[in-house]
Amino acid sequence: MARSKSTRKGAGKDVYSIVVDGETEVWYFQLLKQYESLKNVDIKPDLPKRKKLSELYDLVVENAAEFTKVIWVIDLDVIIKEDKERSGGGKPALQELKEYIDSLEQLDNVHVLINTPCLEYWYLLHLKQTSKYYSSFKDVSKQFKGTILEGYEKTEKYYKTKNIYLMLKPGLSVAIDNAKRLGEFDIESPETGKAEIYKIFELLNL
User: Fold this and answer.
1) How far is CA 170 from CA 14, 24, 83, 164, in A?
2) What is the rounded distance in angstroms from the CA atom of residue 197 to the CA atom of residue 52?
3) Hey, is 35 helix, strand or coil?
4) I need a labelling partner for 46 at 20 to 30 A (CA). Which of 21, 66, 160, 169 fits?
5) Are 108 and 128 in contact (CB under 8 A)?
């Protein structure tokens, strides 16, 4: 998987790509980019549709040849959902993910960050320390009751009106510490709460 630096975007400066699989991640990173005044970050896909794991992997590899760093943010509940939607058998999505992660280790500018089960678990870590495993977004969202995220909605209107990034910003350092305590994602033991997204603040030099 050799790549040519001459093809990278933004010659003379670092340019990063964040690859996501859902709209909530796009809205969150758009707000982060706006608040932190980041001019060297792209968010791909810009208007995401439901993409297969293989398509996202191909996009990551493609972007690795063009960007200084590529950050692939994965919600594990999406992987689990893809397994359930498979027809006619086929390779389990977790096995497919492991093969992709192993392959991407050859590219020193690619970073794979996994949230278990979803982005909202990262939000929860802004509010409290927990290592509990939640199998779905629904279970995580129940923990928002009585907090600043009560009434949380997965809509662009909610994200932009509330400015969810700024709303959670005061708890960011706490969330990072809480996420670090959870350790690294282990694909052999996927049913553990993780929020590797915290690493993005180091990768973006924030």
Assistant:
1) 28, 20, 37, 11
2) 20
3) helix
4) 169
5) no
The pLDDT tens digits for 148-166 are 999 999 999 999 999 999 9
Q: Identify any residues that bridge with 43 across adjacent strands, giving them in sequence order.
A: 18
> Within a 13 Å sphere around the CA of 195, how many CA atoms are in the beta-carbon half?
27
98-144 pLDDT, tens digit per residue, is 999 999 999 999 999 999 999 999 999 999 999 999 999 999 999 99
Give the number of other CB atoms < 10 A from CB of residue 13: 10
Collapsed DSSP state (helix, strand, coil) of residue 194: strand
Q: What is the pLDDT of residues 59-71, one digit of tens each?
A: 999 999 999 999 9
H or E element at residue 177: helix 172-181
Residue 43's φ and ψ, nearest 5 degrees, are -120, 120
Residue 172 to residue 149: CA distance in whole angstroms? 15
Cis peptide before 170 (omega within 30 of 0): no
Write down the H helix ranges in 37-135.
53-64, 76-85, 93-104, 119-127
Structure tokens at 172: 């960011």
Please state the rounded mean pLDDT for residues 182-195.
93
Q: Is the pLDDT of residue 4 over 50?
A: no
Q: Which two tokens stand for residue 187?
A: 């694909």
CB 22 within 8 A of CB 78: yes
Residue ranges with strand state E in the chain: 16-19, 41-44, 69-75, 110-116, 194-195
